[in-house]
Structures are given as C-alpha cells and as structure tokens.
Amino acid sequence: MRLSRSASAYSSKTSLAGRILEGDKPGKRMFKIYPIGFFHVDIAEVRTGEGKLYLFVAIDRTLKFAIAHLAQTADRRSAVAFLDALIDAVPYRIHTVLTDNGIQFCHPPRYRSGGSVANFDGG
Q1: For strand 38-48 and strand 96-98, is the pairing parallel, antiparallel, or unpaired?
Q2: Torsions phi, psi of 98, nearest 5?
C-alpha cells in the first residue's frame, strides 16, 4: 500500500505525538496501603414502599470486610447502635473509623472544641 506524501507526513506526526503524549503520562500509581482495621463509614437514604430507611455501611479498606445496617432514623443513637454492631461483628481490632463528618458521627460545630471527634457513649 502506498501513501501520498501528505498522508505519510500526517501519519508520522500523529504517531510521534502519541508517543510524546504517552511519555508525559505519570507511571502507574499504587493505592495507599492501609493496615487492617481502617474502616470507612457512610450513610445513605433508601426509599422503600413503606417510606424512608437509612443504610449505614462500614468497609475495611484493606480486607474489604463490610457490614450494613438499616435504621428507621439517622441520628446519633442509630450511629451508636451501628458502631456497636460493627465492633461486635469484626473479628479483629478496629483502630480507625473514617467518616464524612455527618451529624450522626460528630458533634455539631457549635459544640466542637478543636477536633470533630465524637464520643459515642450512647448520647
């Protein structure tokens, strides 16, 4: 197959540009390694035929161990019940729980003194 001079020039330019662009790409990045017991916790509203429910979910970032809990309300009492169930269900030590700082998991801004860590004592 013969290419015209312009087609040949276009082909060489595009293949060169492709190699230059590929060369500029950073190498494949690895995910950060987390120790076992690092949980990400989130909540979602679920609509059912009977009304709204709230789905609490926790996933260990390393083992992908997950636990889910449906609750009628999305308040601190429900969050405490979920975290208690999480502690009971997990067969190893939980050392970190990462949340999105939702009102279920931390003190309201007006009650915070520095950090946003809540004491889950059932209150």
Answers
A1: parallel
A2: -100, 125
With 0.85 as the threshold, say if the pTM is over it: no
The residue to which tokens 């260990």 are assigned: 60
Q: Are 43 and 57 in contact (CB under 8 A)?
A: yes
Structural tokens at position 95: 């050392």
Report how far residue 11's alpha carbon sits from residue 38's, in angstroms, rounded to the nearest whole number. 51
For the chain, give the number of residues: 123
Task: Find, among 34, 52, 51, the residue nearest to 43 by Cα.
Answer: 52
**Under 8 Å between Cβ of 82 and 73:** no
Written as six digits, the tokens of 1 are 């197959």
- pLDDT tens, residue by residue, 82-113: 999 999 999 999 988 888 767 777 766 676 66
